[in-house]
Amino acid sequence: MKRLLRVSLDTLAASLMSILIFVMLSIFFDKSLINIFSLTFPIQYLSCIISSIFSTGANISKQKGNSNDVMSGIAVGIIISIIIFSVLLFNVDNYLNFMNYDTDKFFVCYSIIQILFQTLLRFIINKLYYEKNNNLANKFSLTFYLINFICVLFTAASFKNKFLTIIFTLCCLFIYLIFIYIKSFQKFKLNSNVLKWIKYDSVELSNYILLLISYLFGISNTISYGENYALALTITSLITDTQWDISDSISIISKIDISKNEFNYKRHLKNSIKLSSILILSVLVMFFITFGIYKFDINIALIFIIFHILDFIICPLYKIDIYYLQLEYSTIKAVAINSSSKILRLILSFLKSPYCTVIAQFAASFYLLVISHIILKKNFSINKSGEITIKKEEPIV
To answer: CA-CA distance, 124 to 179, in Å (whole number)?
Structure first.
């Protein structure tokens, strides 16, 4: 549980600071800027796709004996990240048109660059986690997000100039990233084991790709139903995004321990359920707090929230099951299960309903829970102490 909380500290800082920054920008400049959080939410999954291949996959590859893969993944990942996000910045008008929303492009560009910087930070943070240097990872992460928060708060409050606020903040973040990379640099021989990196985190990668598509169309669909639904969606995203980011620590710890042969099913499940319970409680508290601050339709927002809570209840089981199947049973089968659940989610995100995103999310999660648990129980035995043994020999793909 302590390890889950330590890893959660990084994701908590990332998510919470991003939320607070857009709240501050909406206070100092324009209240409608709060909706940029929802508008650029799908782009976070573009960052996750890059990180999955060039960070998580490369780190797992190092654990399996490829010592140069981590720094190689970082080097290649930096180049790919800069290219992809540059293309996105130059096409910001097309992005806004697709999302059915008109707002200040300058702040949208800031959000995109901020996500790029978070991607570059994640490369180093993941490297430190796999080296079990959690304290330094948390220190780098917290400092990065505190710099972001303090720079926005200070310049916005002092000068109330959006250009000065954003440019000064981005310059400070860039300088700190340079410092982190200098401190973390290690000599390496460049490898390009991209196919291996994709394989080792293929479940999460396929997950991120389909989530990117689902959120792009789902959020665009919800916004098209009008301001009440757009605001309810934004509020729901604000009070659940941090918790969902924190829940990723379940996946991170599971993959680390499975790759190191230190995994205990019952212990991991117990700790994950505790974490999920804390997250549900925090969602409920935040819901009532935000209701006292923002004027939104509580009936619409409650429907969004209920689906999220149901998903939080089942997420420990399906997260642990699917990653164990991926790393210890069959990568192809695990990817097929995960991909089929996300394809279901993608299809349901086209429902003619303002609640299409949460309906699709829960349906896909429930499907993943049922299928992955059946396959795990069929092929593996879990004893009273939580150790897992295979029931019958099958070739590992």
So the answer is: 12
Predicted confidence at residue 1, as pLDDT, reads 58
66 pLDDT higher than 80? no
Spatial contact of 354 and 222, defined as CB atoms under 8 Å apart? yes
What pLDDT is stored for residue 82 in this prediction? 97
Q: Please, which pLDDT band fits residue 397 given cuts at 50, 70 and 90?
A: very low
Structure tokens at 317: 């089981």
Q: Which amino acid is at 108?
A: V
CA proximity to 111, closest of 54, 179, 173, 181 = 173
- The pLDDT confidence band at residue 269, using thresholds 50, 70 and 90, is confident
Contacts of 56 (CB under 8 A, 6+ apart): 126, 200, 201, 204, 255
Q: Coil, helix or strand for 189?
A: coil
The dihedrals phi and psi of 380, each to the nearest 5 degrees, come to -135, 150
Distance in angstroms (rounded) separating the CA atoms of residues 258 and 275: 19
Structure tokens that stand for 182 in this block: 């200098």
Q: At what angle do helices 105-130 and 134-159 cross, to 10 degrees?
A: 160
